[in-house]
Amino acid sequence: MTAFLPPFPRLVFTILEPLACIGGYLAPVLDTASFAAAQVPSITPTPLTSTTQILALQLGNCYGLLALICIGVLYSTNEPKVVRNYLIACAIADIGHIWVTYEVLGYANFVDVKSWNSLAWGNIGFTFFLFVTRVAYLAGLFGNDRINASVKKRA
User: Fold this and answer.
1) Contact call for residues 134 and 89 (beta carbons, < 8 A)
2) Helix, strand or coil, per DSSP, at residue 114
3) pLDDT tens-digit profile of 41-80?
4) I want to staple 123 with a disulfide (CB 3.0 to 4.6 A). Which of 14, 28, 101, 154 is the partner?
5) How far apart are alpha carbons 19 and 63 in whole angstroms?
6) Beta-carbon neighbour count of residue 85 at 10 Å?
7) Are 75 and 14 contacting, i.e. CB atoms less than 8 angstroms apart?
């Protein structure tokens, strides 16, 4: 377990993020049509095509995979370097996630926070929160890692 992480990043990365990813997996599995329709808040839902359905379910599968990777990495290592590299990769993916959402929504919908639905809040708001938390941790803004004796011996 990543006991060396400061309390706030540990809470975010080991509890909140995996739970959010599990939600991202379950949403399209439980209601594919609503999940697909809600990707763009201002568009009136249309019937699902086979392409839209498979893309929504594959996206859900990617969220499930991300939850498993997150749990697998953060609950199985005590190596700060492994966690830092994982968080760098996630931060880069956060930028891509937000950029793709911006490109599809367009500037006006992207900045119209009051019209965001729950998926927009997840795709933009929560992802930005995760990105800022990752960068703040990587920059040392939460303080130093707490290195325990077993990690010090191997270093």
Assistant:
1) no
2) helix
3) 867 778 889 999 999 999 999 999 999 999 999 999 999 9
4) 101
5) 10
6) 12
7) yes
Whether 22 contacts 64, CB under 8 Å:
yes
Q: 22-47, pLDDT tens digit by residue?
A: 999 999 999 999 999 898 886 777 88
**Spatial separation of the C-alpha atoms in residues 109 and 116, rounded to whole Å:** 8
Q: Which long-range contacts (CB under 8 A, 24 or more apart) does 24-33 make?
A: 24/59, 24/60, 24/63, 24/64, 24/66, 24/67, 24/122, 25/60, 25/61, 25/63, 25/64, 25/67, 26/60, 27/60, 27/119, 28/56, 28/57, 28/59, 28/60, 29/57, 29/60, 32/56, 32/57
Amino acid identity of residue 118, one-letter, is S
| CA-based max dimension of the chain | 60
